[in-house]
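Anyone? Bumping this.
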Amino acid sequence: MNDESEIAFASGLEGVVAAETRLSEVDGEAGELIIAGFPVEELASRASLEEVIYLLWYDALPDSERLAVFREELAGRRVLPRAVLDLLRAAAAGRMPTMDALRMATGALSLDISDDESAADRSHAEALALVACLPTIVAAYWRLLGGEEPVAPDSELGHAANYLYMLTGEEPDAWSVRALETYLNAVADHGMNASTFAARVIVSTRSDVVSAVVGAIGALKGPLHGGAPGPALDVVFEIGEAGRAERVLREKLGRGERLMGFGHRIYRVRDPRADVLASAAERLYAAGGDGKLYRLALEVEKTALRLLAEYKPGRNLQTNVEFYTALLLHGLGLPPQLFTPTFAAARVAGWTAHCFEQQGLDRLVRPQSAYVGPRDRRWVPLEER
Ligand code: ACO
């Protein structure tokens, strides 16, 4: 408590309810995630990403006519402004990390947004451009980093299929598209996570949706939020064979390191998205790919859970979404540098929906701080310091 104002203080805003939302509910005790009314298990492996975006934006599943129009609208916005491609070329020449390039290029999407529209139309145009273009930015940048020319989006393909197509230049098989889409749907929104909160704070000042998403990308970049799947897979590779799992993980825990892919601020039981993605990964690896790695990852998970219970008793640290994200995206042929940008390409659906919701509320987010610094300091002239 802050003695002076008697306003509750919660470090990290833990337990603080910062908004009402109809977009998603995370029940950390029960291990449940509801996305706009649907349990994640019901939605993620059935819906197309376009349906999930539509659901988040308009609070209902589209009928086939509305879905066709929405798909076309999104597909028509996938092409990047030339200046954004030029920026990405410059970033690739400097080997800029993928999330930094994504943040920079996302800000430049404002180039294509007209200032003449009403505020609501402008927000809608920005949200469409953001959702449509984030995969294009990521894929184009990855190809440029690899010394290849970007592949132009194919407006005939769905959102997820087109992303894989722009990465590889080849039309993906149905299994891969389904696996990617299940992942993108499962992580499209997740309560008041740090990046979503950042986006809501930014639009609450009546700033624009592009600014909000740029801020959200900055928040997502950190390893305690969206930056964990790369490192989670690194640990599996470092372990290399099941027999070494216990020794390597004990060494890490003994050094006080956190095991990436485990633990969650909200979930005190298993993250339900981990289950959805575990099933999707199982199907993907059964259809082909590195089965040895898949089996090793399962062993690493089992050992990690046992050791976390031993080293952090009572904390109930469980597998989080990042662990299976890493496995799934690796199975799709995506390199670790693309894991967090791909997460962003999914979460942008939630960020934009939260922006709309916050705009409807039109209430500035402005908490307080508890001052713990010194008082009564007196000015000392420069020559006397
Ligand atoms: N490995 C080892 N120890 C851990 C881990 C972990 N993965 N997670 C938490 N702990 C420890 C903490 O160090 C703390 O120990 P202490 O009490 O001895 O100091 C204790 O468990 C309790 O921590 P919590 O309060 O439960 O964790 P917090 O809410 O602060 O952090 C977080 C949650 C940041 C996700 C943490 O679990 C972590 O760093 N995990 C690894 C990174 C990761 O996987 N991030 C992705 C999260 S999912 C997502 O953002 C989509």
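Late reply, but here is one note on the structure posted above: Residues 224-226, 228, 258-265, 312, 315, 317, 320-322 surround acetyl coenzyme *A (CB under 6 Å).
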